[in-house]
From TrEMBL:
It comes from Xanthoceras sorbifolium. Residues 604-619, 626-666, 679-762 have a biased composition (Low complexity). It is a single-pass membrane protein; Single-pass type II membrane protein. Its main location: membrane. PANTHER family: METHYLTRANSFERASE PMT22-RELATED, SAM-DEPENDENT METHYLTRANSFERASE. This is Methyltransferase. The keyword Glycoprotein applies. Residues 667-678 have a biased composition (Acidic residues). It is found in: Endomembrane system; Membrane. The keyword Plastid does not apply. The chain crosses the membrane at residues 12-32. InterPro entries: Put_SAM_MeTrfase, SAM-dependent_MTases_sf.
Amino acid sequence: MINTASPFKEKKYPFVFALSVLLLIAAVFFLFKNAAVSSLVVGVGDDKGTSFTDLVDLAVKWELCGGGPTSVDYIPCLDNFAAIKKLKSRKHMEAQERHCPDPNPRCLPPLPTGYKLPVAWPKSRDMIWYDNVPHPKLVEFKKEQNWVRKSGDYFVFPGGGTQFKEGVTHYIDFIEKTLPTIEWGKHIRVVLDVGCGVASFGGYLLDKNVITMSFAPRDVHEAQIQFALERGIPATLSVIGTRKLTFPDDAYDLIHCARCRVHWDKDGGKPLLELNRILRPGGFFIWSATPVYLKDEAHRNVWNAMVALTESMCWKTVAKTVDASGIGLVIYRKPVLYSCYEQRKDNHPPLCDQKQSLNNSWYVPLTNCISRLPVDSNGNLYNWPQPWPQRLTSKPSSLSTEPDAVEAFNDDTKHWSGLVSDVYLEGLAINWSSIRNVMDMNAGYGGFAAALIGQPVWVMNVIPIDAQDTLSTIFDRGLIGTYHDWCESFNTYPRTYDLLHSRLLFENLTRRCDIIDVAVEMDRILRPGGYVLIQDTMEMINKLSPILHSLHCSICFADHRGPFCPHHHQQPHLLRLLLPAAILSKRHRFTHHQRGLHFIAYPDNSDNNDNTNTNNNNSSGGGGNNDSSSSGGNNDNSSGAGGNNDNSSGGGNNDSSGIGDNNNGSGDDDNNSGDDDNNSGGDNNNSSSGGDTNNSSSDNNDNNNNGVDGGSDSSNNNSNSGTNVVGSDSNNTNNSSSSTNDVGSDSNNNNNDTTNNNTNVVAWSDSDKDPTEWKVCKWPTAADYIPCLDNNDAIKKLKSRSHMEHRERHCPHPPPRCLVPLPDGYKVPIPWPKSRDMIRYDNVPHPKLVEYKKEQNWVRKSGEFFVFPGGGTQFKHGVTSYIEFIQRTFPPIGWGRDINVVLDVGCGVASFGGYLIDKNVTTMSLAPKDEHEAQIQFALERGIPAILSVIGTQKLPFPDDSFDLIHCARCRVHWDGDGGKPLLELNRILRPGGFFVWSATPVYKKDERHFNIWQSMSNLTASICWKAVARAIDSSRIGLVIYQKPISYSCYKKREANDPPLCDAKWTFNSSWYQPLISCVSELPLDRKDNVAKWPKPWPERLQHPGVTSERRAVESLEDSNDYWSGIVSSLYLEGLSLNWSRIRNVMDMNATYGGFAAALIDKPLWVMNVIPIDAKDTLPTIFDRGLIGIYHDWCESFSTYPRTYDLLHSSYLLTTVAQRCDIKDVIVEIDRILRPEGFLVVQDTMDTINKISPILRSLHWSLKLYQNQFLVGIKGFWRPSI
């Protein structure tokens, strides 16, 4: 008789085993299908054993909102046409005010046809998808005023406006020049822009560290606020009509109105009195309107009325002016004392009574009195807040007078600072790089927003009307917010926020209104792909879950644990709800890689926290009666590395009830991690990393379902739901994880299976550790060590330095294996885009350039920072003005459309390239490592593409015909030296038809020395057929000349002398690695039909088209590359590899092929250096043809960059090849050198290669994780060996 257990245990009857597996799969599929149709059992236990109840669909039949095409923009409280029709008057904008329907509508707004995930910040400031806000009316209505224009699939925002004739940047600077005490970003931090148009004023003030609330009504200026929010600029729908604005008294530092079409003196001056109420004492009102500067009778009457009204309110006119474009403005200031009010002859308008001075402004009518000046807790009049950024954490003047208010405020700040940095940014699997517009639905003191201040996001802080009124404190901190009643809809368009955050909001709401209505409103205002973070009681989460389930959200859970809990509080449970593409397609058809909505909720355990990090009996993962804890201490079962753990943090046969109503693992099944019910590997008791294990996980994959008990009798003791554990020192019986597992935590696991990816687990023993005893480089300048540029022994032996030979590469042999130390006080760099304007001094502690260029506004030191004002030797009016001057001088340049790839020679601190990013131009900034100390290091720390190189005796490491434009502003290169070889090198890498912009003293100075240089340059450019297409001098007396390279051979053939000659065919290939400069004119590139190559397609079309210089099969190869990288980046890199994209700016693809990886990241706020190894197929011309940048390199040598300059290094099947030519350890040392602490390395390669490099990385104390047996993710730490 056959023992029924034996066939499965020993696999002696493979047909029985296979049949059983098939039956099991069918059974699980049936159960899963039924579960998906009826209900979904989910559970997250709290500390008392509470769990989610079974989710049942609500008896709600969801429907799309009707009403025709406008339903996609439906705003319930502003589109209540039945109520609007009943209005008795509309003369005070009553029709634009809130009129909320009762009951609340429960329809779902459809998506516009062709809707896409929004363009990411900061690109979104300048361009958005047309299909997302398909309202062209404003383009036509304001076509003469440069607000917005349509360009292909996009709306483009040039930064113009009715009053911004010379651009909004010039207008902002004009204001500060008119009244320097304004001090944008220091004295003035919080601004209100009334009648904001498309919010370009607020959008560009962000560059000045100013946060602006842009507001306008929903009126004939179709969709202006929708444009603003789609651009990623703070904005809200509102109107100055009959009611107070939903802001507290004395909130804004400055209020701005540029032709905002408000009649300030109407109705007894109530509109201006409302501004007075919300303007901080000592704050400014800027009125830029025609009555200020036009003198006809109508305008003069308006001006006189405004003068009388402002004087009656004691506003002082502190400035009045007209700029060069004829646009004028007046600046008023609100008083800081009562003395003026007391001295008025007429008490009109009167001061408000005390009862009218409260901050109640929700559905409250406008008043015709002057609000009283605020007093602090001691009864003294307010002082102006501390300068930014000190005011963010200083005690606010408006803080409650209650005894414990200061302590509560400080505790709140510390709480959110720790929770956001340790949990929200790292532990909740949120793709922060896709998040720009954030709302805190119950903001308290604004601690959540303050904790995010270093991220490229903005936060709308909402104070519910029934909560403690802390909104004044939020504004005092330099943040923005509004009052709101969450029983009604919010004043915004659908699809305007990327993340909604709610803490302990819903319990109060359920006492006043239906929680279903709140969930519908959240669904309305959240973008597809957006997130909701909910922290509340288990009771509230149980109420919310079936509502979200009824909206066709599939529900996934993970017990989120770790050592980062602030104050040893338990890290909350994690509920993640993902709206699947299949359901989302009922409202919008997405491509396979686009995401729906993410909901993350967790119980608030602040009152039930009995677990700390030491001597715990229960886990921080929550649920049931766990016997395992998060890390450290004398835990019964520790989830950290080391020790002799019986159970791991997420699954296996843990005693905890984790997630679900079971007592084993974190799923719905007895042996499960995450939501997967059955582990791959059947009855495995050993890892499948190779050798003769009893059971291989690749042979034993039972089922991988979500949240369904498949009825498996599997006896696995351990499971992993997605990635591998590689090497652990402890003797763990069970090591499970819900998604990723540590590599190199040195354990011998008995069971390490993966369920989702069918991958094996690699385990190393102690003998596999790399034995290298690492040492720190010990010379004084070692923190900036660049092996191939700092080889002083080789440099000393040079016979000549006349051609910059000492600045060229001289690589030591063998390569050094010391580790560069960190500068004292080094910190994680400031994130982009703030980094463009300021970096930490301790990260690049080189003050020499500050002194050397102090008169030229390159860089200055300010406290703990270097600040970059955007000046330069040739940028007397700032780099933005200089960039615009170039385009005005020669309009065909077309920044961001025809010109996309630029080389800036002798770049200084790279401000030219940094500000061209705003124009959709990628600039390779280039300079040598010379007496301009650390200029390239400054550039890279700022997040601007840059490389160390010099035009000396060797070719630059770029292909022929690469750059659209080359720029030199006083770059100190003698172009005519050595027979003109430097300029001939530029000619080689400049695209036919491309431009060379030379801004240097010989262009505009007339003394003999400069004149001789000019004549020499004129002769040389003429000899190589460059045409001078423009020459100009700006108002600062800085001049430039623009040359254009020919697009045909006709000029070369007509030259009287063939000097310099055309290069022979042997010189025309793209070999430029250690190749000498040549004294000939490179041939023009040919397309596949042997015609001279044409200019690439306009951006962004060129990104998807190979250049005409590419090989014949390039189209097919490029398309395949695009498809592959587009899919894998969106599905794995952005979502599945636990990379914190919000910290990533400088990226390098070490083996870039066609640049598909970079192209897939094109909408992210980062840049990619595409490296083509010298022994790889030469595809670098195609990369440049696509509008990307790159370089040649030999990875057996060091890269020409400073240490700590990249946030992410990406290597796809590079290291296997490199290992055939040089020692892989040297490559790893170089990777460690150029990667920043807390930076990421992603290696896609063979397991053999991964097994070779992992011990080396482990010896460097890197944190490693392995995905799908081909993707190794390493995180570099701050570790350096002891000196």
